[in-house]
């Protein structure tokens, strides 16, 4: 079977990584690139740099990666859908729920494969964690918390920290728990003088009763990417920056105090750090998208899942603006 001809739209920081991985993955051929601003990182190689999406489509592509700023996602995606091109769209799916819904409708109406680049689902630590949760290693899940902090990335200018960074945590939490969000309460602030919020704290509940919290900002001098899942048998800690997964097992408190002799509490137990095969998440994401286009079983983040995540992000912003709990 001939390789899938892939077009890349957007040659910025993420675009250069997509170009590298597309060239590395079996069954894919980087057939064309496009960016109205040129090729600042020199990723095109011997390919001409197209100035428009239509020019790229004319190169004869089967699928495309959309790595332009979020504000342009809708226009680019709709043009690809009209041309019958499958697309992997960087997260978030769009700037607003209305834009995202139009993208979903366009791809579904034409029977095209569409995916959103919520790359954390392809992190080895989180993939292993989800498998262990499904196997019942933790028993009942009580709580999922995340911390995603670091310096401001100057390349992000069109959305705030909620839609850019917190959407990672919203998506991975719903995916790990296999449950949608039921309610959110959030606070945001802007401390850097930029247009959009740069810090957020989120408290939420999922439809299955799991409670969650997310601490996300662009104003920390250190980079932190931590997910903690606590349940009846202990707690898993996944560090997605290093793709490490550790299990802290509950111990048993023994006491001779008669009045509480029947009480079994939680104390420190054995700690296990798992040895994982660590494939680059972006490569795993591209392999999944390739398989989906070819009609094979695949773990892509669907456009509808991406839209659901954006809806939660908008609920977070509404909650912060109104200082109220927002039901989804």
TrEMBL record:
Give the record's keywords alphabetically: NAD
Q: Which residues form the GFO/IDH/MocA-like oxidoreductase domain?
A: 127-236
Task: Pinpoint the Gfo/Idh/MocA-like oxidoreductase N-terminal domain residues.
Answer: 4-118
Q: By its UniProt entry, which PANTHER family does this protein fall under? A: BILIVERDIN REDUCTASE A
What is the protein name for this chain?
Answer: Dehydrogenase
A GO molecular-function annotation:
nucleotide binding
Against InterPro entries, the record matches this protein to:
Gfo/Idh/MocA-like_OxRdtase_N, Gfo/Idh/MocA_Oxidoreductases, GFO_IDH_MocA-like_dom, NAD(P)-bd_dom_sf
Q: Does the keyword NAD apply?
A: yes
Q: Which Pfam families match?
A: GFO_IDH_MocA, GFO_IDH_MocA_C3
């Amino acid at each position: 079977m001939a390789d899938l001809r892939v077009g890349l739209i957007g040659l910025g920081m993420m675009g250069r990584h997509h170009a590298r991985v597309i060239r590395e993955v079996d069954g894919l051929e980087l057939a064309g690139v496009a960016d109205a601003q040129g090729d600042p990182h020199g990723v095109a190689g011997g390919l001409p740099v197209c100035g428009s999406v239509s020019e790229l489509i004319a190169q004869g592509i089967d699928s495309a990666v959309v790595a332009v700023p979020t504000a342009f996602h809708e226009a680019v995606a709709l043009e690809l859908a009209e041309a019958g091109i499958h697309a992997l769209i960087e997260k978030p799916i769009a700037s607003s729920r209305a834009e995202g819904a139009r993208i979903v409708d366009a791809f579904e109406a034409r029977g095209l494969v569409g995916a959103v680049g919520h790359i954390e689902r392809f992190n080895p630590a989180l993939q292993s964690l989800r498998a262990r949760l499904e196997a019942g290693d933790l028993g009942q899940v009580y709580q999922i918390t995340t911390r995603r902090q670091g310096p401001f990335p100057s390349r992000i200018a069109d959305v705030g920290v909620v839609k850019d960074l917190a959407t990672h945590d919203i998506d991975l939490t719903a995916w790990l728990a296999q449950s949608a969000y039921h309610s959110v309460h959030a606070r945001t602030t802007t401390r850097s003088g930029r247009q959009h919020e740069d810090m957020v704290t989120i408290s939420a509940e999922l439809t299955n009763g799991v409670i969650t919290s997310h601490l996300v900002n662009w104003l920390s001098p250190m980079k932190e990417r931590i997910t903690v899942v606590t349940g009846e048998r202990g707690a898993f800690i996944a560090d997605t920056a290093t793709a490490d997964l550790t299990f802290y097992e509950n111990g048993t408190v023994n006491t001779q105090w008669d009045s509480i002799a029947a009480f079994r509490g939680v104390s420190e137990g054995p700690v296990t750090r798992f040895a994982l095969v660590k494939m680059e998440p972006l490569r795993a994401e591209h392999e999944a998208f390739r398989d989906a286009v070819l009609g094979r079983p695949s773990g892509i983040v669907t456009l509808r899942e991406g839209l659901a995540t954006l809806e939660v992000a908008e609920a977070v912003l509404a909650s912060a603006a109104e200082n109220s709990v927002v039901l989804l």
